[in-house]
Amino acid sequence: MSDAAENEVLLDVTPGGAAIVTLNRPDKHNAFNADIIARLSDIFETLRANTDEVRVVFLRGAGRSFSAGADLEWMKAAADWTHEDNQADALNLARMLKRLHDLPQTTIALVQGAAMGGGAGLMAACDVAVAVKDAKIRFSEVRLGLTPATISPFVVRAIGPRYARALFATGEGFDGEFAHKVGLAQYVVESADELDDMMEYLASSPSRPRRARCATPRRWWIWSPVARSMTTSCARPLTRSPIAGSAMRAAKASPPSWKNANPIGRTRPFGPARS
User: Fold this and answer.
1) pTM of the predicted model as reported, rounded to 2 decimal places
2) Does the 4-211 domain belong in CATH 3.90.650.10?
């Protein structure tokens, strides 16, 4: 992990026991790479060991976006990696998400702007998500010839297999209202300015006692041998395919897909467009 990653993921803890983890790459819409994943993983492990000082964890993004998912430069480099490198990379991302998911404290994502691919996976791995009404959310892996294997166990648990299969397969964008409808978000606010108010409100609410939190079923299957095998075998082998390689090479020359997102929650019910 590079020294720069410490400034690109910030950790603050209030006297009241609220930890605020901030993705701090606003110029990159808080896209993450291997260093950011390692930094997040370390932070979550540190928080896990400090339940006496920290009772609630907020995850948010600096600037206009929550997280645009994987950094394009990082993804383009992955196209030339070996199968073993891609496998290790996928496991690092999966391990970070699982550490977030397994934190004994209540975890809350505060989502504004773009939450794409792995960024939406971070939402799903939290206990609670608060989304701005016009947030732009998408499981965008299919648009780059990839599969969302690493985030899929958390997303399926959050929204159910039916919606997950549809949104994974189509790569359609949706907004905060639709995220609330399918269970990915539990609260919706009108503007990003209201996220701070929601953070203050939720931080002051009685948090689930640690004993009760730990007694909640931890969904063993998220890191079961089957889920682990799916993650390592499906997460990135397509990065070496001609389709994925061409898509990722072209990504830098094209505007991010979320800029032209057509939020299905705001424009029409989910399903094929009607003529």
Assistant:
1) 0.79
2) no
